[in-house]
Amino acid sequence: MARTDGAETRHHTLYLEIRRNLLRGSFPAGHRFKLSKLSSELGVSVTVAREALTRLSEQGLVVLEPNKGFSVPDFTDAEINDVAFVRKEIESIAVRRSIEQGGIEWEARVVAAHHQLAVSPNAALDEDPEANEAWTNAHRAFHEVCAAACGSPRLLAFRIQLYDQSEIIRQMAKLHRGRQRDVAGEHAAIAEAVVARNADKAVQLLHTHIERTRLSCLESWAAAQPPG
Q1: 87 and 189 share a domain?
Q2: 90 and 182 belong to one structural domain
Q3: CATH value at residue 47
Q4: Are residues 139 and 169 in the same domain?
Q5: Residues 8-32 pLDDT 10s
Q6: Taking the mean position of all CA atoms in its chain, how far away is CA 57?
Q7: What are the tens digits of pLDDT across the range 102-126?
Q8: 171: left (phi over 0), alpha (psi -120 to 50) or beta
Q9: In sequence order, what are the residues at sequence separation of 6 or more whose Cβ sits closer than 8 angstroms to the Cβ of residue 155?
Q10: For the chain, which residues score pLDDT lower than 50?
Q11: What pLDDT is attached to residue 150?
């Protein structure tokens, strides 16, 4: 039987709501989703809730285990390293191609996205949820626009999937104390290299930026573990 427009809308709404909360770091690592609770909270059927979580699991944002159901990923060090490694490679290809192919309108979008990021306070989720969400959205938009002119929808889709996975890791790790960095300075340097059309420098800065995030996440992950 074909899905009705109403069911499709409810499925998409629930999918977006769970995804938004995942990317905000609202769920702790290992959190198990209860289909009955989700369905009752948002007024959808258990089937719709299951389909939304299945879609998220296909994107690597939720884990589906036989006989256990859906849960938030509890990333291992190896998984954090792997996400960072693949993201560096994919992001670099997209940014390099964008520098080669992007026009003046794309340059203006990069400048505007960086300005929005630069003026957004970078607050922790538990300190200021609204400011955290505003910075998170500006951060996503900046990295997205730097890659936007690559000319490959498949490359962009894969980049978004990897970015989302790394964002869940970053938000979870941010709940704990990590190493200090000049994140604003890192973004400013990337924006400057991109607008200057210096692909080699932009890629090198991007690699360093993602690598520092990886190390910060690993440090925070380790600090959050109980002794022994």
Answers
A1: yes
A2: yes
A3: 1.10.10.10
A4: yes
A5: 677 788 888 888 888 777 888 888 9
A6: 15
A7: 999 999 999 999 999 999 988 776 6
A8: alpha
A9: 90, 93, 94, 97, 147
A10: 1-3, 175-179
A11: 98
Query: Residue 60, by phi and psi: left (phi above 0), alpha (psi -120 to 50) or beta?
Result: left
Distance CA 148, CA 155 (A): 10
- For position 207, which CATH number holds? 1.20.120.530
Position 148 scores a pLDDT of: 98
User: Do 219 and 137 reside in the same domain of the chain?
Assistant: yes
* pLDDT for the residue 125: 67
Distances (CA, A) of 8 to 1, 3, 15, 184: 13, 7, 10, 40
Q: Which amino acid is at 100?
A: E
Residue-level pLDDT at 174: 66
Domain extent, residue 31, equals 5-71
Same domain, 64 and 83: no
Measured between alpha carbons, how far is 30 from 107 in angstroms, rounded to an integer?
A: 40
The whole-number pLDDT of residue 90 equals: 97
Q: Which of 71, 100, 125 delimits the end of a domain?
A: 71
Residues 90 and 62 in one domain: no
| Count of domains for the chain | 2
Q: How distant, in Å, are the alpha carbons of 31, 78, 113, 156 from that of 139? A: 25, 25, 8, 16
For residue 64, the surrounding DSSP H or E stretch is strand 63-65
Q: Which amino acid is at 30?
A: G
